[in-house]
Amino acid sequence: MGMGVEIRNKLARRAAEEIRNGMVVNLGIGIPSLVPNFLSEDINVMFHAENGITGMGPSPQKGEEDENLCNAGGFPVTLKPGGSYCDSSIAFGMIRRGRVDMTILGSLQVSEKGDLANWIVPGKRVPGMGGAMELAQKAKKVIVVMNHCDKQGNPKIVKQCTFPLTSSACVDMIVTELAVFQVTEHNLVMTEIFPPYNIENIVKNTGCDFKISDNLRYIPY
Amino acid sequence: MNNQFGKITTLERVLEYFHDGMTIMFGGFGGVGSPPTLIEGILKKGIRNLTLIGNDTGFPHIGIGKLVSQERAAKVIASHIGSNPFAGKFMQEGKLEVEFSPQGILMERIRAGGVGIPAILSDIGVDNEIVAKNKPVYTLNGKKYLVEAALTAEVSIVYAKKADEYGNLIYDKSARNTNPLVAMAGDITIAEVGEIVPLGRLNPEEIVTPGVFVDHVIPSKGGDWKWAWE
Questions:
Q1: Which residues in chain A have their CB less than 8 angstroms from residue B79's CB?
Q2: Residue B27 pLDDT more than 60?
Q3: Which domains does chain A show, CATH number per domain?
Q4: PANTHER family this protein is in (chain B) (predicted)?
Q5: Class of domain B3-116+151-227
Q6: What is the distance of C-alpha B71 from the center of its chain?
Q7: Collapsing DSSP states into helix, strand and coil, what is residue B38?
Q8: In chain B, pLDDT over 90 holds for what percent of residues?
Q9: Chain B residues touching residue A125 (CB < 8 angstroms)
Q10: B29, B80, B123 member nearest A128 (Cβ)
């Protein structure tokens, strides 16, 4: 994503604050995969993977990888006590049935209404939707973690997505290196700012209007 | 080892099923759990114009990706082709037709095929013009659903950790992934396995795919590829 390690870690740490005890959580590739590093030890969470794992643990030590134990991105993982394997249809059954509490994923654009566009860059890349549509449409809470602007400096939070949608009105929360937004029924609301950025920076780099929360939090890390 | 059901056989024998223009369904997810020996055999047989059905197109040198990157496929039905740049390239050049299906719905279409159901109703991507294209819409209890057609194939190829003589299968961790579904959806299903054991040696409570669905079992020679993370 062209983002420094420190910033990537900050975003992952902020997203990790949303995870509560007992949740089933699906993590996308990239920054979302860093989220487990920032969970406090008293939180019990089952990480879910689309290929058919519930209860993924941390990456194995180098040399201890098992080629038949990988996450949906194809990278080696481990299994926590209480974890289990299933086939991919069951893994998606968990998602569609509403048993996956949260998904944390990246995006190309998010609209003020929470529309998600993260599967096609028109004219460039058509990788396919993978499991993104089901996760976006059916996970109980959808958190997008992404750069505030694209490489050309264009806002990625926009009035209307110009890229093809993955799913409409599905995003609940957006975390960028500048700020945190909640998508409510009526508005997009900025609730938190990452210092040293200020409201002016964020207005300038956001492609739609938004409300500013009365209890604006300045994130202390 | 006995071979009471005649299911245990060789790569050479099962390769007789494979021919130009056929439809092959494959197990595996990002190459994990794809049958390496069968794929290599199909590649060496030199058949073309294949329709491949499975989760994704693997990596250029991993899993089903080998067949895609060496231009053996005319059509792919998958949820993701992003890890195999050749798939995207051939699609742009018009050499490869790609039908994208949302991942979990693709799995249900395969399962439906495997259990004799002609189609399923789905609300995934019902308002998405790419997903909904050319699919009938059915209204049930006031809600709109896409009619997603079941998928079957002339031959399904899967990888399992162990088979017994009857073709009962157990899998290995996340290498299970799409294999139990794909195993049910082939007119002929061929399982490549790490180990073949006598009848009675697998715990009946732990068998994932009943041998009823498996026509042939061949021993695996293992994968010859290096993973992206290696």
A1: 128-131
A2: yes
A3: 5-218 (3.40.1080.10)
A4: ACETATE COA-TRANSFERASE SUBUNIT ALPHA (PTHR13707:SF60), KETOACID-COENZYME A TRANSFERASE (PTHR13707)
A5: alpha beta
A6: 18
A7: helix
A8: 98
A9: 82, 88
A10: B80
Q: List, for residues B57-75, the tens digit of each pLDDT value.
A: 999 999 999 999 999 999 9
Interface predicted TM-score (ipTM) of this complex, two decimals: 0.97
Does the beta carbon of A108 lie under 8 angstroms from any beta carbon of chain B?
Answer: no
- pTM attached to this predicted model: 0.96
Give the residue-averaged pLDDT of B85-99. Answer: 97
What pLDDT does A114 receive?
A: 98
Instruction: Give a three-class secondary structure readout of A7-70.
Output: HHHHHHHHHHCCCCCCCEEEECCCHHHHHHHHCCCCCCCEEEECCCEEEEECCCCCCCCCCCCE
The reply to whether A50 belongs to the active site is yes
Instruction: Identify which of A39, A7, A24, A17 has the alpha carbon closest to the alpha carbon of residue A146.
Output: A7
Query: How close A18 comes to chain B (CA, Å)?
Result: 26
Sheet containing strand A188-193, strands side by side: A78-85, A53-57, A46-49, A24-27, A102-105, A141-145, A173-175, A179-183, A188-193, A211-218
Q: What is the 3-state secondary structure (H, E, C) of A171-192?
A: CCEEECCCEEEEECCCCEEEEE
What is the token pair recorded at A216? 């604006």
Please tell me the predicted confidence (pLDDT) of residue A1: 46
Residue ranges of chain A with per-residue pLDDT less than 70: 1-2
A95/B80 touch (CB, cutoff 8 Å), yes or no: no
Residue B226 contacts by C-beta under 8 Å, 6 or more apart in sequence?
Answer: B61
A88/B178 touch (CB, cutoff 8 Å), yes or no: yes
- A91 Rama class: left (phi>0) / alpha (psi -120 to 50) / beta: alpha
- pLDDT on residue B55: 98
Considering only CB atoms, A129 lies closest to which of B33, B79, B107, namely B79
- With contacts defined as CB-CB under 8 Å, which chain A residues touch B55? 88
